[in-house]
Amino acid sequence: MLRLVQGCHDAHPSHGYRWVHAYLKRSDGITVSAEYVRRCFLYLGIRAETKHQKKDRERKARDPYPNLIFSTWETVDRPRQVIVSDMTAWYCQ
Q1: Domain of life here (predicted)?
Q2: What is the mean pLDDT of residues 72-89?
Q3: Within 13 Å of residue 37, how many CA atoms lie on the same side as its CB?
Q4: For the chain, what is the domain count?
Q5: pLDDT of amino acid 75
């Protein structure tokens, strides 16, 4: 089994143990668990070489509508100095 796993990994180094498990099951008809193939990977010391490149995510943009009330709440000293409203629209189809 170790020779089969090593041979499959040498032919397809970018694939991991789940893919190797499915490949051996389909091509050779070997019925072992994916956990067994994972342990073969660990025993042989092999890891999948991924083809995917990690992409850096763009940073989240600042809030286009900052909350100005919280920043100036200490300056509110009389009633009706600050009036807040909400424009939420629900569209029913």
Answers
A1: Bacteria
A2: 72
A3: 24
A4: 1
A5: 73
